[in-house]
Write a structure and sequence with these properties.
Blueprint (H helix, E strand, L loop, with lengths): L2 H4 L3 E5 L2 E5 L6 H14 L3 H15 L14 H6 L1 H18 L10
C-alpha cells in the first residue's frame, strides 16, 4: 500500500505521471505553515519560477514545444520576454492559491 493510499487518497495519472489526491481539508495549522513557508520563498520568486520551468523542460522536453519560446535555448531562453512573463504568471498563480487556502473547497 502506498503512502497516499494509507492516507485515504487516490492516485490518478496525469500526462503519464502519477498524481496523488487526498480529499481531506487542510487544518488551520497546516495552512499557516504553508503560507509562512511560501512567504520565505517570495524574495526568490523570479528565480524559482525559472527553475521550475527549466526542470519541466528537462524532464519533459516536448512540453517546451507548447510555448512561443520553443526554439530559444540557454541565455536566449532566460531573457525571452514570453518565458520570463510565463514563469512570473505561474509563480503568481501558485501565490494566489497559497494565500487563499482558507477558501479551498474539496470535491470528489
Amino acid at each position: 500500500m502506498t503512502y497516499t493510499e494509507k492516507m485515504g487518497g487516490t492516485i490518478s495519472h496525469c500526462g503519464g505521471y502519477k498524481t496523488a489526491h487526498n480529499h481531506e481539508q487542510l487544518t488551520e495549522t497546516e495552512i499557516r505553515i504553508i503560507q509562512t513557508t511560501w512567504a520565505k520563498l517570495e524574495p526568490q520568486a523570479d528565480q524559482i519560477g525559472v527553475d521550475i520551468y527549466l526542470k519541466i523542460f528537462e524532464m519533459v522536453p516536448v512540453a517546451k514545444q507548447l510555448f512561443p519560446f520553443r526554439d530559444a535555448v540557454g541565455e536566449e531562453l532566460l531573457k525571452h520576454p514570453y518565458f520570463k512573463g510565463h514563469t512570473k504568471r505561474f509563480f503568481n498563480a501558485i501565490r494566489m492559491a497559497v494565500f487563499n487556502l482558507e477558501a479551498l473547497e474539496v470535491s470528489d
